[in-house]
Amino acid sequence: MKDSKKDIRALTREELRDFFVEQGEKAFRGNQVYEWLWTKGAHSFDDMTNLSKETRSFLDTHFVINHIKVDQMQRSNDGTIKNAVKLHDGLTVESVLIPTASRTTACVSSQVGCSLNCKFCATARLKRMRNLNPDEIFDQVVAIDQQSRLYHNRPLSNIVFMGMGEPLMNYKNVVASIEKITAPDGLNMSPKRITVSTSGVPKIIKKMADDGVKFKLAVSLHSALDEVRTDIMPFNEQMPLHELKEALQYWYMKTKKRITYEYVVWRGINDQDKDIEALIDFCLAVPSKVNLIEYNPIDDGQFQQADPEAINRYVAKLEDRGITVTVRRSRGKDIDAACGQLANKNG
Ligand code: SAH
């Protein structure tokens, strides 16, 4: 009869309080349960030790806590940890802990598979797709925070939505998860330490600006020329660059927050001066900076990392125009945990 029980994390604090009152109990029990669920990340009623045994088993007859399970954990020799995360319905996603000298970043998934079709991304090849619920995203953060404390002796400091899936195609649940992660009665993390990375869905970028979200925005640009971008990110045909640019201008006007462009330079695809000039134009339209990220090969070699000279040309020309640019090396490549390598390939 497991299925007839309601997932307790679908309830608001108010609804939990009301539930207890209806049962002839005190409303503050609802607060206690809420705190166990959203501040302490409890996955079992038995963990709720300030409730009586009777109350715990009573909750157990009415509710379930659908939660993720870290099924497999791989540790890279650079300290990166990749988790294969089992969802309550048996599907799997991946999340990654990325340590640096000063911080620990959680890279979390927002969907099972992805509906976009970026040619260079391993996740795009996974057919099966569903959106993650807010608690499934929340649980990834809690699991990585625990690993950070255990293996790196410090709490999690940053979160990036750069795992599997396109966060803006699951906008409602992503925002709901961030609310729990940042709430004072949740994990109480600062939204300034959270980055949502998108392939660029103009309509939702505008909605985010209207909603006044407080997290940071990164856009996977990879090319500022429509013909090139459509080739490697075919959805660009439906959402071309001028729409993206307009949405980003709107974002900046409303939020005053600078945008980060994620950009991989590939040999023979976007390594020419015309590509650099187009990127410069795009950058000058909205306050922004560029992250040049290393390509992580996923296949037969259709895509190859550009020569160092091409990267250096990008850096020099961008800097020359006053645009901030960083070159980012990938982490966790030996365990397929780097950008674009997440494809449920474990072991
Ligand atoms: N869908 C979101 C978030 C997931 S991808 C987005 O597109 O932003 C996270 C980043 O990894 C994106 O910038 C994506 O373009 C990049 N990426 C995808 N495949 C890659 C690969 N094989 N090598 C390097 N980066 C890759």
Automatic annotation (TrEMBL):
<feature type="binding site">
    <location>
        <position position="114"/>
    </location>
    <ligand>
        <name>[4Fe-4S] cluster</name>
    </ligand>
</feature>
<protein>
    <recommendedName>
        <fullName>Probable dual-specificity RNA methyltransferase RlmN</fullName>
        <ecNumber>2.1.1.192</ecNumber>
    </recommendedName>
</protein>
<dbReference type="GO" id="GO:0032259">
    <property type="term" value="P:methylation"/>
</dbReference>
<dbReference type="InterPro" id="IPR004383">
    <property type="entry name" value="rRNA_lsu_MTrfase_RlmN/Cfr"/>
</dbReference>
<keyword id="KW-0479">Metal-binding</keyword>
<comment type="function">
    <text>Specifically methylates position 2 of adenine 2503 in 23S rRNA and position 2 of adenine 37 in tRNAs.</text>
</comment>
<dbReference type="Pfam" id="PF04055">
    <property type="entry name" value="Radical_SAM"/>
</dbReference>
<dbReference type="InterPro" id="IPR058240">
    <property type="entry name" value="rSAM_sf"/>
</dbReference>
<keyword id="KW-1015">Disulfide bond</keyword>
<feature type="active site" description="Proton acceptor">
    <location>
        <position position="94"/>
    </location>
</feature>
<feature type="binding site">
    <location>
        <begin position="220"/>
        <end position="222"/>
    </location>
    <ligand>
        <name>S-adenosyl-L-methionine</name>
    </ligand>
</feature>
<dbReference type="InterPro" id="IPR040072">
    <property type="entry name" value="Methyltransferase_A"/>
</dbReference>
<keyword id="KW-0489">Methyltransferase</keyword>
<feature type="binding site">
    <location>
        <position position="121"/>
    </location>
    <ligand>
        <name>[4Fe-4S] cluster</name>
    </ligand>
</feature>
<dbReference type="InterPro" id="IPR048641">
    <property type="entry name" value="RlmN_N"/>
</dbReference>
<dbReference type="InterPro" id="IPR027492">
    <property type="entry name" value="RNA_MTrfase_RlmN"/>
</dbReference>
<feature type="binding site">
    <location>
        <position position="118"/>
    </location>
    <ligand>
        <name>[4Fe-4S] cluster</name>
    </ligand>
</feature>
<keyword id="KW-0963">Cytoplasm</keyword>
<dbReference type="InterPro" id="IPR007197">
    <property type="entry name" value="rSAM"/>
</dbReference>
<dbReference type="GO" id="GO:0008168">
    <property type="term" value="F:methyltransferase activity"/>
</dbReference>
<keyword id="KW-0411">Iron-sulfur</keyword>
<keyword id="KW-0819">tRNA processing</keyword>
<dbReference type="InterPro" id="IPR013785">
    <property type="entry name" value="Aldolase_TIM"/>
</dbReference>
<keyword id="KW-0698">rRNA processing</keyword>
<comment type="similarity">
    <text>Belongs to the radical SAM superfamily. RlmN family.</text>
</comment>
<keyword id="KW-0949">S-adenosyl-L-methionine</keyword>
<feature type="binding site">
    <location>
        <begin position="165"/>
        <end position="166"/>
    </location>
    <ligand>
        <name>S-adenosyl-L-methionine</name>
    </ligand>
</feature>
<feature type="binding site">
    <location>
        <position position="197"/>
    </location>
    <ligand>
        <name>S-adenosyl-L-methionine</name>
    </ligand>
</feature>
<keyword id="KW-0004">4Fe-4S</keyword>
<keyword id="KW-0808">Transferase</keyword>
<feature type="active site" description="S-methylcysteine intermediate">
    <location>
        <position position="339"/>
    </location>
</feature>
<keyword id="KW-0408">Iron</keyword>
<dbReference type="Pfam" id="PF21016">
    <property type="entry name" value="RlmN_N"/>
</dbReference>
<feature type="domain" description="Radical SAM core">
    <location>
        <begin position="100"/>
        <end position="334"/>
    </location>
</feature>
<feature type="binding site">
    <location>
        <position position="296"/>
    </location>
    <ligand>
        <name>S-adenosyl-L-methionine</name>
    </ligand>
</feature>
